[in-house]
Amino acid sequence: MDGTALAAKLLDETTSRAQQFLADAGRKPCLATVLVGDDPASRTYVKMKMNRSAKAGIESVRNELPDTTTTRELVDHIEALSAGPAIDGILLQHPVPAQIDERAAFEAIAPHKDVDGVTMHSFASMAFGDTGFQSCTPGGIMRLIDAYDVDLTGARAVVIGRSPILGKPMGMLLLGRDATVTYCHSKTRDLPEIVAGADVVVAAVGKPEFVKGAWIKPGAVVIDAGYNPGNVGDVEYAGAAEAARLITPVPGGVGPMTIGVLLAQTVDAAYRRAARS
Fold this sequence. Notes:
Elements: H1 3-25, E1 30-36, H2 40-55, E2 59-65, H3 71-83, E3 89-92, H4 102-107, H5 120-128, H6 136-147, E4 156-160, H7 167-176, E5 180-184, H8 191-196, E6 200-203, E7 221-224, H9 237-243, E8 246-247, H10 254-276
Helix pairs in contact: 1-10, 5-7, 6-7, 6-10
């Protein structure tokens, strides 16, 4: 499943919509990024997202805070961005330093600017099939599934991972499309047997090659949402590819779609704000 090609198509669509928004509103859609501390990987991710924003015709405003920032200071900063009239979407790069309550920081993002889909409001919207913003990685996975005509109706889907911005919303989106969803994690008993019965497997556990190729049912669809050092996913790719009908590579599968959805939802947020005003 070629996430790079599909993300490129999504970026083209987003660029056209951003250009139309500029023509209609007289300004570009605007994404504010917030980076706390000086983690090299996080800095690289933010720079990449800002570069992609620029290519799509989206203005980006970079906010950098020191690694000594407290939860209160970060919440105050995000609340100011949430109230800012020039900002359409807010992205808090995670993880944040250990002294910060990440959930409190996420919840400071106004729901109508939560283009990364990290707030409890966005999770509820996903669970109830409302029109809020999707968590970007699960949203990107659903676009991949649709692009490859995977029929989810009645399918047995296993999600391995339970994070609030990946595993849990992934299951909600699959359930909303009439799949029968089982949540698993690294401590699940008899995990190989559970995975062996799955028509769709989403691996988001954060452990390299945790899901073995021998577990995969012939003809299954395998989505590897993991990314570990050395460009290694959460699935043992070579073995899984022998059995799977469709499988995402790492890199080049889920990752590009995550950024694509972030930018698309930023343009969505700009249009929604303009409509309200």
